[in-house]
## 1
Amino acid sequence: MKLIFERGYKGRGSEHLPDCDVPVCQLPESMIRAEQPALPEVSEIELVRHYTELEKQTYGVNDGFYPLGSCTMKYNPRINEEMASLPGFTNIHPLQSQDTVQGCMEVLYKAEEALNEITGMDRFTMQPSAGAHGEFTGLLLIRAWHLHHGNTQRTKVIVPDSAHGTNPATVTMAGYETVNVPSTKDSLVDLDALREAVGEDTAGLMLTNPNTLGLFDPNIGEITKIIHDAGGLCYYDGANLNAVMGQARPGDMGFDCVHLNVHKTFSAPHGGGGPGSGPVGCKAFLAPFLPGPVVEKENGAYTFKTPKFSFGRVRGFHGNFLVLVKTLTYILSLGREGIPEASANAVLNANYLMNRIAKDYDIASGSHCMHEFVITLERLQKETGVSALDVAKRLIDYGIHPPTMYFPLNVKEALMVEPVETEPLETLDEVAAIFEQVMEEARENPDLLHGAPHNAPIGRPDEVNAARNPVLRYTP
Amino acid sequence: MGCYVPNTKAQQQKMLETIGFTSFDDLYKVIPESMRVKSLKLEPGKSELEVRRIMEELAAKNNPFKSIFRGAGSYDHYIPSVVKSVTSKESFLTAYTPYQAEISQGVLQSIFEYQTMICELTGMDVSNASVYDGPVAAAEAVLMCETRKRSRVVLSGALHPHVIEVVKTYCDARSVEVTVVPPKGGKTDMEGVKDALKDDVACLCFQQPGYYGIIEDAEALCALAHETGAKSVMYVNPISMALLKTPAECGADIAVGEGQPLGIPMSFGGPYLGFMATTQRMMRQLPGRIVGETTDSRGGRAFVLTLQAREQHIRREKASSNICTNQALCAMTASVYLAAMGPSGLEACATQCHSKAVYAKDQLVLIKGISLCYDEPFFHEFVTTCPVDPDILNRRLAKEGILGGLPINEGLLWCVTEKQSKEEIDRMVAVAREVCES
Ligand SMILES: Cc1ncc(COP(=O)(O)O)c(C=O)c1O
């Protein structure tokens, strides 16, 4: 496929602006760049066709089944998009006076109220722009609280070995040291190892529950107690909230703060990698340390306030506002029955699909999962040489997006499957049949899988070459 | 109403039975009873029509302005129709990060093209696929420069206040000391910077054009940093890059900025686009996704996420950053905008911004009591005094559908873009005259 730079013709372009209606001024020559940037010179029709072609080589939720574990690829309702495009939201400058943005502030306030109720927290900051950004904000909140109480010796954060890569990376960014704790053979938190790991230097724990194997840790009350007893605080990675929305709340499990990935749980689309939004909620005792400003309601009007001991901003302005418009739209649509129902069906769909394929695939996450489950292809790999990667690539030939591969790290040859609640039973049955078929092929004709995909727009890319000889931009 | 679950109650029951359960409660029996939610204190679900009414009512409680003379980090530019039409395409909208290259060439190629355009705008060698916003890009950039021996960063006080705050947050967490050199005459204080640049300084970060609109002597500032062995980070306005010397020409090590002016609506502050570009030498310190070109098994051109050894999913606690989800669709918005404008269109846009800002300034200073605070070449923002309470002036302008300059210590920080016609500028000036001279 041609690059946009390989289309068009020198001097081509479309006019979008009228002639300048004031005297034209030039900046001093000494300030001017030597050459114009070599941007594309294309007509509008070439531009539109280019992106139409690119779209055809892109697979989204609207194209088919997308069981990408840990990513919650649920349907993104169209009404959300339309509401986020209302000019009353998009044409608002972020530094307008507060009396002219009461609607935006009410959106933030209402979304926060609902998220407090869903998570069992007392206050939220809407600034963080994604899950990892929320993790960073949450750990800084914990850090600010510790420092406020003179706990300078608390320098370590405990992270289970099954955790997402952003957790330990965040620990470093927040100036802490990671203490990895191994999981039990059932992939839960090893309580003894945890008791051993905590101490005077424990600042906190980062955990997702259900965990990255799709298992709810029934010892969660004990886990958070061990941390609290040692003087640490508990951070909930909300990436897996889609399992338990309206069913169980991090606040009731003993967590002190939490981030949500609203681009997962609350149906905002992923946009090929973003933007998302990662609001962070906390218990009342942490609220004075939140980034500012937050929205308060006083005498029927909304105002911005900076919390008393705020540790500062984590980004400009008020967060990914339009993504939060989608969040609120979704929460209003589902309401108090729809929210738990969505989670219950996410769990049902996962268990159903797991059950359907369990006779062919080894399940690493026990007999009963939450919203996702993990397959291990270790045995298949040993017996036939067919890897998790091969199976994933073969699934592409059948028109479905592969599950998450090689995650969590504590499972060998892992494929993590998250079917989400918005998939109908018929799709799950079709998918189960495809999985069955692929397993049969793996045993009969491993080469077929090694060479997959066979009918995708491209074959397997040479990633080693890409990293060794980086070509990161177009040069004519 | 409903939760977009397609399965009927009967189907759900059948599925439960297939897997050996009788009710939904069975699915959750691993959760201790004391932790189960009995009932959420939320309103019942609503139909699409009801939700639409509520959201439209909320939007109607805002006051969008017809003529906008305020910038300060968020800019009102004309967005060609084609931009929204391309970025609303459903496969782009509903795809995840392109982990599976074979079915994600569209997104991957679009990022590769975006990286190329950012390199062209800034003159730098390598761009990443975006971070959350401009201030975060600045924070990530200064941390790229940190070494064991150099753990202090110097910021120009003529940076946007949010940039300073966010850089401080990020640096504070890693015990990197931040020195802010207060601005002088509305721009970076050269002497102050020189004094602050000791041999423990990792980098100097400044904004071009500065927060008060003035065009900095970026070459001199980069040279100052380099003399002491520090790196230089330039926070640039991407539209101004159509005219101004590029960060590469000025000798910068890292160019970052807020990409919002490139076709992204103001949207009360987000989602926006943090762009980051650097030299070949510092490529492996860049945070976030990077797309590279390679070949596929059939020998054709292919694009993949690359240099992943920097990233959190491989390096975990040793990663260059924790970023995972970024602002991909905003990056695509910027590329479509840049392709729609083309090199001449972008230059025309930048020239009009500058010309109209100069025209507005010339008209405003004719008003009694209004004068230019800093008489230096500026791009499309400038600061004037205000003889009356700025809020009074702005309230009067608001009645005419005009968003006036941002109140700051000195008076008002104005911005004019290509979008404001001469007529609109004249009308704004007329109202201002009425308020200030009466
Ligand atoms: C378990 C877990 N934690 C954290 C994250 C990071 O979230 P984000 O990509 O929104 O930064 C993810 C998603 O990728 C995740 O799956």
Note: Chain B touches chain A through 204 residues (CB under 8 Å).
## 2
Amino acid sequence: MAINNPQQVSGLLRFITAGSVDDGKSTLIGRLLFDSKNLQVDQLSAVEASSKKRGMQQIDLSLITDGLLAEREQGITIDVAYRYFATPARKFIVGDSPGHVQYTRNMVTAASSADLAIVLIDAENGVKSQTRRHLYLAHWVGVPHVVFAVNKMDKVGFSQEIYRMIEEECSQLARSVGFSNIHVIPVSALEGDNITVKGDRLHWYSGPTLLEYLEKAPAAQDTEVQPMRFSVQRVTRLNRENIRTNSGFEDIDTRGYQGLVISGQLNVGDEVVIQPGGYRSQVKKLLNASGKFVEAVFAQESITVFLEQDLDISRGAMFSDVSLVGQVSKDFDAELCWFDEDPLDTNRTYLIKQTSNVAKVRLQSINQLVDVETLQKSLHPSGMKMNDIGHVSLKSQIQLSFDSFETNPGTGAFILIDEVSNRTVAAGTIR
Amino acid sequence: MNAVLEKIRDFDQAARQWTHLDALESEAIHILREIGAECNNPALLFSGGKDSAVVLHLALKAFFPERLRFTLLHIDTEHNYPEVLDFRDRITRKYDLNLVVRSVGDSIRQGRVRLRHENEPRNKYQTTTLLDAISEHEFDVCIGGARRDEEKARAKERIFSFRDEFGQWDPKNQRPEIWNIYNTRVAPGENIRAFPISNWTELDVWEYIQREAIELPEIYFSHERDVVIRGGALVPVTPLTPPHPDDEIKRLSVRFRTVGDITCTAPVESKALSVDEIILETAQTQITERGATRLDDQTSEAAMELRKKEGYF
Ligand SMILES: Nc1nc2c(ncn2[C@@H]2O[C@H](COP(=O)(O)OP(=O)(O)O)[C@@H](O)[C@H]2O)c(=O)[nH]1
């Protein structure tokens, strides 16, 4: 493991590997961990032992990420496994996501927290339908950057010509899906070419190795430079009964709002609009995660806000910049991905969870389905079943405050929960 | 409108000190606040180990300056190092917390747990005691300090991990967990296990302990101890783990990387007296935390997965 001085780390990069089954996702992660010296001896000897048990001569790097009994029995990845590694430049969280269509919801789970997706392409076979599907889903769920790893270059004699064709095809595909930040890198995960060192078999390639690219790739979108949004997770009523002794706060008798700064910056003295009520107030005090009063807080911080005015504010309320407020409505359109075995039932109500709001919601209409492989849209579909993606209109029981997912993923995202089974049946992005 | 846009464009990215520890901390606090807002009766599983000490610290921060309302639940194997119990009780008093201790020994005496032989490691038997405690107190969520870097079954688990009325985890059918929007809903009798530091590594935990000056039991730091070397691991000499007749007893400088059931938690050789020194050692170590110190997970490739399916932490 590399030594990491927290002061020098340029932060954390969360990425996933996606792509069709057998294109080499697990091998690639194994190679990254192995070559960057992030595997410990006991992990290596465990992998060696299971490689031997399966009658293999060399160690099989893909076994490093293979997890559950059920998966080993079937020889496939069912659910995302998270791995952690570090280089002197950066810390990484990797989600190794499943390739099979029936586990789409687990791939989406992995992608939803990723700053970047590595989409693997088998150089022998090029783009497959599952590649298209993953690319579409990665963009839909808000992954900001994509890099294609054109893998198994050893199988095509490290041919520049073949690489160029695939490079062109993937770049076009990524643009058509909506990505603007696209990179393509030729590699051999199995033999280690261009993962952490370039090697001489790809002499015609002049870009960074995959690891070099990952070390410099931008992390999440710069949420600080968006209009301020703060979502109230919890109201804390501070008084003599519930303040901790020796906290230094014994004399306070007030209400505070605990939550996450979703985007932007909030300063003491700022005027904010509180939705859905539309009240206004000034920020009196800001308590940061370390229990200190500060002048300003920023996106991603978990904080407590105290306001000048005494207002009736509860969980789910959203504080916004006065000049750039979000939308407030019961009716909205969304692009929905259906996860559950039971198809969507428009006669039922579901629960929506968006920021800290939980409310009943009805699906008013299914307007179109998207074929994520051809990008064709079919109008007036009869329903939505597992793994379908569609444009829908929803009506919520209460007023929700939100932005479009495109302008602010933190306020434009939601999940749907089945009230009876309590399963998470869908996720949506507000349009 | 323009003025605001100007202001936010001027934002100086570099001036903001936002480290990976800040990101991990904020994620954990967000998770703990969701639990505080949505769950009826949360229990924080507190063993006195470093991971649970970090989770407790995060929970105290999440609700500061409010008193923490989560019940601390210790599933006691009765195979403890006394320093760990002292620490548990000291911290409970310091923050005026409500501690519930349920012991595997009681489960054995009540006939709920049957041991195969005396002095057997009791980690796996904690499951019964835990499930009994959950139903006795009607906890709807149990907050744990498990991390995904520890073990491969953990690497697959959700942050909010659903358990059915038998406490079972179904790894083939986990709830999707999209963005940071968590589904905390359960029916009566069912339970959620929540893991706020899922995404932390062992090194992150130590760096955070250093940054926040979090208190720990003394046995995490280097001390002299009688041990015997068995199967490559250091086995401490204690009343529960007496030396075999032909064992050679050595007195070594050791520390624990995890603390658990005495009979299956091994120390490592170390001279690290401070958190700084532990961080240096952790950054350079060649072997994982569990590989080095847990004698019970090495028995099979899937030991943890099987235990988790049955309701283990
Ligand atoms: N020749 C060659 N084979 C590879 C390469 N990467 C992966 N493979 C093989 O392709 C198969 C599938 O790889 P795996 O990593 O399990 O794919 P996954 O299903 O995407 O995780 C395995 O037999 C690998 O050994 C590569 O770069 N070159």
Note: Chain B touches chain A through 77 residues (CB under 8 Å).
